[in-house]
Design goal:
With about 140 residues, the protein is mostly helical. Helix content is about 70%, strand content about 0%. It is a peripheral membrane protein.
Length: about 140
């Protein structure tokens, strides 16, 4: 048993060709119009897909440019903060430990929305500042 898409014997193929030739003019005309319409739709979809790809590439390039700009700004601010920290580390005086801790910690809970929850650590530091451990 052999499967095929078309007629299996040659007489059936000839009869099918005769049927296609003998179809009415209106059906043949509709078939041609349908074929043109489908080709036009395919061309439109290919054109639209190409436009979407170009737009996506442009948006991706803009996103990479923004990310790179943000990264450069973050690097610059981190370097400045590190330099300030190193300069402040040289000025160590006894009794100023808590002031230095307060400078390094952000005690404003509403300052950064995206940061992790550090409220417990903040409360521990504040309680240690108010009642230091006795050695």
């Amino acid at each position: 048993f052999k499967e095929s898409n078309g007629p299996t014997d040659s007489y059936a193929a000839i009869s099918q060709a005769d049927r296609l030739q003998s179809e009415p003019e209106s059906i043949r005309k509709w078939r041609e119009e349908q074929k043109e319409r489908l080709e036009q739709l395919d061309a439109n979809s290919r054109r639209q897909e190409a436009e979407w790809k170009e737009k996506a590439i442009k948006e991706l390039e803009e996103w990479y440019a923004r990310q790179d700009e943000k990264l450069q700004k973050t690097k610059a601010s981190n370097r400045a903060a590190e330099e300030a920290f190193v300069n402040d580390a040289e000025d160590i005086f006894p009794g100023t430990e808590w002031e230095r801790v307060a400078q390094l910690c952000d005690f404003n809970p509403k300052s950064s929305k995206q940061a992790k929850d550090v409220s417990r650590m903040r409360s521990v530091l504040i309680s240690l500042k108010q009642a230091p451990l006795v050695r």
